[in-house]
Amino acid sequence: MNEDIHEAAARWHVAQQHDDMKWCGFTCWLEADPRHRLAYDEIALLDARIDAALPGPAVRGGTSEMPMRGFPRWAVGSGIAAAATIALALGIGFQGEQPEAPAAREFASAARTTRTVQLAHGVTASLGAGSRLSEPEAGGPMRLRGSAFFNIRHDPARSVVVEVDGYRIRDVGTRFAVNSANGVLSLSVEEGTVALQLPGQTSETLVAAGQEAIAQAGRVTLRPARVANIASWRSGRFVYDQTPLALVAADIARYTGQPVSVSGPAAQRPFSGVLAPGDRQAMVSTLTQLTGLHAESDGQTVRLVDRTGG
Question: What is residue 72's predicted lDDT score, i.e. its pLDDT?
Answer without folding.
Answer: 52
